[in-house]
From TrEMBL:
Region (Disordered): 64-83
Entry annotated with the keyword Nucleotide-binding: no
Cofactor(s) it depends on: FAD
Cited InterPro entries: FAD/NAD-bd_sf, GMC_OxRdtase, GMC_OxRdtase_N, GMC_OxRtase_C
Family classification: Belongs to the GMC oxidoreductase family.
Full protein name: GMC family oxidoreductase N-terminal domain-containing protein
Domain Glucose-methanol-choline oxidoreductase N-terminal, chain residue ranges per copy: 83-106, 254-268
PROSITE patterns: GMC_OXRED_1 (PS00623), GMC_OXRED_2 (PS00624)
Amino acid sequence: MSNEHETVDAIVVGGGSAGAVLAARLSQDPARTVLLLEAGQVYAPDAYPLPLLDADTVADSDHDWGYTSRGTAQSPPLPTPRGKVLGGSSAVNAGVALRARAADFAKWGEHGAEGWTFDDVLPTFKLLESTPTGDDVYHGRSGPLPIRQRADDELTPSLRGFIEASVAQGHKRVLDFNGAEQNGAGGYPVDVVDGVRQNTGLVYLTAEVRRRPNLTIRGEVNVDRVLFEGTLATGVLAADGTVYRGREVILCGGAYGSPAILLRSGVGPSDDLADLGIGVVADLPVGRRLQDQPGYYNAYALAPGHLEMTPAVGSLLWTSSSEAAAGELDLHVTATHLMPGEFSPTGGAIVLMAALALPESAGTVKLAGRDPQDAPLIESNYLGTERDARRMLEAVKLGRAIARDPAFAPFVVQELAPGDAVTDDEALARVIAVNPAIYGHPTSTAPMGGLGDPWAVVDSVGAVKGVSGLRVVDAAIIPEALSSTTNVTVIMLAERIYQRVYAD
């Protein structure tokens, strides 16, 4: 192995929503040397290109891993966006800044993950946030991440109409989804200021942070695997053969990237590793419990006179299905203008995306081969249980009922998908199964848990079981799908693990 670098205290693999946070926090101690390796481009804070700054542009193909996944047994391969740039998916997503709920964190405890109750994490949510509105009990004013709750006067007329129709259909009005109440309809909280998406590469890895002599950031470094001496992680091997040595390795590659690195490193199910000729370092259920939220795009043509599409995001109805457990909010219907207007005969479009936020189905992430250039094989297994299929159908029907309400109907002239010809439940269920949508919130491919959890890959602070010197800190370690979007909770996760493990 050629081109071996000198040993640093911590190697952070992946500069996305978690990795940028950890690199910034770990390097606050001038005595700790930190190396951040990012597979994508590393832009200076003032040099991000427009597609990464414009909050109405998502999943920019120039900064994407190009993954595909299998959604359902009936669906074709689905493009599966993941950010490949400093800032990761926080630089290409829709900018939604929705926290997980107290009920979500209670489930973490059921897996034996300690220190993750809502009371535990609320101070960290407040620490990372800078927002001018909301109750001080729930909100922070001076954190690195600017978050803004969309007010009614910021929304397009059709986005406001969606909220009004939801209320007319019997749902509560929510003014702050990151406050005391989430059950109802309102504008989204977003990490967008003046139309600019505030990704973690911008707000955590500021110009001042990047000048720290103990922090090195290298872009376009695709990490192949973790290097071990026995069961001690000693560094990483890049795809180009470069060796980077570290006293600790922290994987922040996301719910697909981190398990792929673990598997190539010999950390995973022994049978799968043996099939690929990979020696087993630790036999753990890596990639065996992928959870992701299935969606469906219920799209409409905006009416002439109501063609405004900025801002694109948006409004949310967050509610319970008829089969939800007590205290669960398992359905989302989101209203956005993320569908380009050219797909509508009127030049304007709105999508009421229905999503099952708390699926019980689990999928897998596996390796296609040992080559780090090969994308992982992602089987989402959407609607893998009859209950999931029923609840997903219920979500789509809920969105269609809102669209027909007199408070919303004047803003649209035509249902584009599935179309008025699809009327009965059986036909609608078939359409959903063939055309699922990526909501983009995968979790649980290297879940945290206690000794009694058979799915656990890491402990309550991300340390990989059965080895030393290796940690995973990203959405992969979240034990179950969240009822929210994931981004802000992943940022919190990194902040809290830093506090618990590394802070003085």
